[in-house]
Design a protein that fits this description.
Oligomer: single chain
Low-confidence stretches: none
Helix content: 55-70%
Order of helices and strands: HEEHHHEHHHHEHHHH
Largest sheet: 2 strands, antiparallel
Distance between the termini: 39 Å
Structural class: mainly alpha
Number of helices: 12
Mean pLDDT: 89
């Protein structure tokens, strides 16, 4: 083999393979994971019958997709990352369950307060509450919960558990301080999170970016995925099914009609986006009360090299 070609292959291997850790480098791990994740996301709706957009089909697809992503995470942990599965923020115990409940309250409070502000401002009009416990109503409520929990669990496993964890390790350069490493990893994971969500207007993109930062901060401070999963699920369920501002929601606890601009009062409008700031303060206060500190969790800093 020519010496130039041999040197080229050596450098290529150095860029792609971490000899000391005996695994691919972080950027390649994330790339392989995302390519596989995207393939699963695209293929499942094509393989699962029946066709259509019913609530049942959406719940079925979401349940299957969630199981596939959990399997993907186990495979990535075993064969690519070569680490225990609990290091992705899945050290499940009693405290983990409490964090989920607190997250549900914080996340659900954002669209609730946004709806109250919309009512006070005259931008939203509330219809009658639909709470008759018929079999169809209870069934649709169950489907809505499956969809909500599935979306929250999958996106937190992917963007916080896997991508943010690997980004922290991949950006752990000697010439970067640990705070800069963590902040840069948080920004990159939030940006990826925003890019995979449709944003017809700038304010929608800003919402998803700030949501990625909020959820990433919850992961960094708690060291576990319980709090971000709870916040994510609470926000999605209340905004999509309790106080939906969509023109024709598939299921609604309280029907709403809107007269204000979408950029202000929609699910991803300016009001819900701005309310993420007080939600972050409440989250930080809770973690300070629970752990006595508001610094980055030891579960996160342990991913960094000792300098």
């Amino acid at each position: 083999m020519h010496s130039y070609l041999r040197e080229y292959l050596r450098r290529l291997r150095f860029l792609a393979w971490n000899e000391r850790e005996q695994r691919p480098r972080a950027f390649l791990r994330v790339y392989i994971f995302l390519i596989t994740y995207t393939g699963i996301f695209i293929s499942i709706p094509l393989l699962v019958a029946p066709s259509g957009d019913s609530l049942f089909r959406s719940a079925l697809l979401r349940a299957i997709f969630t199981l596939c992503v959990i399997g993907l995470l186990f495979g990535a942990a075993t064969y690519i990352d070569k680490r225990p599965i609990h290091t992705y923020g899945l050290q499940i115990d009693r405290r983990w369950g409490v964090d989920v409940l607190v997250g549900l309250i914080i996340g659900g409070a954002i669209p609730t307060v946004a709806t109250v502000l919309g009512l006070l401002g005259g931008w939203i009009t509330a219809g009658e509450a639909v709470y008759t416990p018929t079999a169809t109503y209870v069934r649709d409520l169950g489907f809505a919960i499956v969809i909500t929990v599935g979306i929250a669990a999958v996106e937190e496993l992917v963007f916080r558990g896997y991508i943010l964890s690997n980004a922290i390790e991949g950006l752990d350069f000697r010439w970067l301080s640990q705070p800069v490493t963590i902040a840069t990893a948080l920004g990159l994971s939030a940006l990826l999170f925003a890019l995979i969500h449709p944003a017809p207007e700038l304010v929608n993109g800003l919402h998803f970016l700030s949501a990625g930062l909020l959820l990433g901060l919850a992961y960094l401070l708690s060291g576990q995925l319980a709090l971000p999963i709870g916040i994510h699920a609470g926000f999605n369920f209340v905004s999509a099914y309790v106080f939906p501002t969509a023109a024709d929601p598939s299921f609604a606890v309280i029907s709403l009609s809107t007269t204000g601009p979408n950029w202000l009062i929609s699910q991803t409008g300016l009001i819900p986006t701005a309310l993420q700031i007080p939600a972050a303060l409440v989250m930080i206060s809770y973690l300070w009360w629970r752990a006595g500190t508001h610094s980055i969790s030891i579960d996160i800093t342990s991913k960094l090299k000792i300098r």
